[in-house]
Amino acid sequence: MKNSYMSVLTAIFLMVGVFLVPAGSSAASLVSFSVHTPGFAPIIDENGLYHMNKGIWNIIEVTLDSSVSELTVEMQYGTGDQNWTNHYIWRYSGGVWEDPLYQHYIVPENCSVEGNTYLIYAGVDYDAYAGTWNLTISSGGNEIAHQSVVVEEPRVAASFRSADFNLWVDPFVETTLDSKDYMQYFSLVNEGNVPLTYTVNYSAYEDRINTTGKAEIIGPGEDSRHYITFRTDAWSPRVLNFTGVITAVAAYRIPQRENAAHLIPSVASTFTAKIHIGYANYELYTSGDLTFQAKKKISMDYNSVSNLTVFLTGNGPAVVGINSSNCTILAVRYNGKNVSLPLQIELRPDVEKNISVTVLADVPNTTADISYDINYKGHSNKYRTEISVGPSSEETTNADVGQTNDTHITVIVFLALVVGVVVVYMLFTQKRMADKGRSRDEKANERRNRRKK
Question: Which residues sit opposite 274 in a β-bridge?
């Protein structure tokens, strides 16, 4: 019985001893601590404090000198009622990660333990206070370390640059156009303090467009350049117009709480694009289902001959008239044969009709033109090719002769000046020699006269 009493008393004393022992430091101590956005280096200010953006997921990284089965990280700003504006707790216990206060500001599947390093994928609400927060690391109720962390407003800002996309392909050709071949692209520069992600939405033909050169996440200060490809079918001549809208938002955004009033802002820019199904260096005109292609401007030497080819598609009969000004039409050919005007053609949407016009530039130094008048489905459509004609050979020769005469006159004047200078120099030299001779004679006479005396 005595032994039983002794055993009970021993157990009681042991239990009391456990509760009476003052809480001391945890056996583990802090080796390193950091906070950073996923995939990017930490931001540390001049005071050595880590920065994190509110409303954005961050990785809180804690390394201890030994492993623990339970780890708690608590962040607090100021005093007063505690809620998501000023108080957070993240905990690891028994292999489970949790946000015990709100069950919202942690992503357990992205948290991990690597040796003695604990990676907590967590963040604070967009409505949290900005400023310096107190952060405490503890295990089993014992404080391991204390840190200060600066919580910042997320600033979403970007500058955009975009080309006016103009891509060309010949009619009835199936291909994939790449704006990189034309060095046409859009780009954006992250001018904010949070990583950006973006989307590109097109007003039409989304199933034919691909955006290349993507960078899914653009860090602060980084830029990203992008091209587009467009898949065409074997289409008849036409112009396809669409716009693209680039929308950039903060990456790693924390989902908004239910009934939350604030959203992290986004920035956007729009660009335009045209796909020309037509011949390069040709002007493409459309009127309903009628398409007409011709050179808008050409240059010709005086008295030279040139062939102009125009292309038409449509769906029904068309009457074509062709006239000239300050030049002469020598021939008009259709289907390989000379034809007279006006010319009636049966147009089809799936076949291109072409007409060849042979032109003589017989008026020098002028602006000539060929005009096309197409009557189609009760409408008159007028188009024009402007011809810049050079000067005649006689004008060129006269100009050359005038230039030659001017050159001859210049040479003659120059030679006359040279001769004049030489003559003046010779006269001056002869006068000096004569003066020297007279001086010698006078001095000789004086010497003779002195000897006589």
Answer: 166, 241
